[in-house]
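Training component of the fellowship. As part of building independent skills, the fellow (R.M.) carried out the full modelling exercise for a liganded target. The chosen ligand was copper (II) ion. The inputs are recorded below so that the supervisory panel can assess the work.
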Amino acid sequence: MAAKIVAALVCMVVMLRLSEAAVYKVGESAGWTTIANVDYKLWASTKTFHIGDTVLFEYNPQFHNVMRVTHSMYRSCNSSKPISTFTTGNDSITLTNHGHHFFFCGVPGHCLAGQKLDLNVIHPASSTPLSDPPISSSSTSPPSTPTIPAAGVPGSSPSHAASLPSAAAAVVALFVSLVFADFAS
Ligand SMILES: [Cu+2]
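Fellow's submitted model of the complex:
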């Protein structure tokens, strides 16, 4: 019984973790290449990257690599001073900060051929669900005006709930006093 509960909890934790951090394979089945003419800009635009997500570059390390570079190096395909270089052919890169992340293949000609990737990891403040409810509630506040009296009903019901126990207490007090009155007599 306890083991089942623990197993269920473990499953829940695993599912939560899966929903928190995603793994994105760059280029999907085509991977990281120049052959398939993958539009990596288009690929990135279909994803929403968050801090903690992982991007996976899969490629043949004989022909390609992955360089993380600055924006200016990305624009000019300048591979002279990469921030970091990955060469395993199966490189998982976890996104640890927000903003743009620029990558390209450092093999001569490949960046110019389009083997380049610009990921934008959205800012935590702009992505928190907390900022959404106030926006949606303010936008729906004119239609929700008729529901404000309805919203006042739950506010008045606690006073009813409070009066009920006090009435019950009064009845109990009356009963107790009657019982004591019986004992006294
Ligand atoms: Cu390449």
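The panel noted the following from the submitted structure. Residues 127-165 have pLDDT under 50 and may be disordered. Residues 34, 63-64, 105, 107, 110, 115 surround copper (II) ion (CB under 6 Å).
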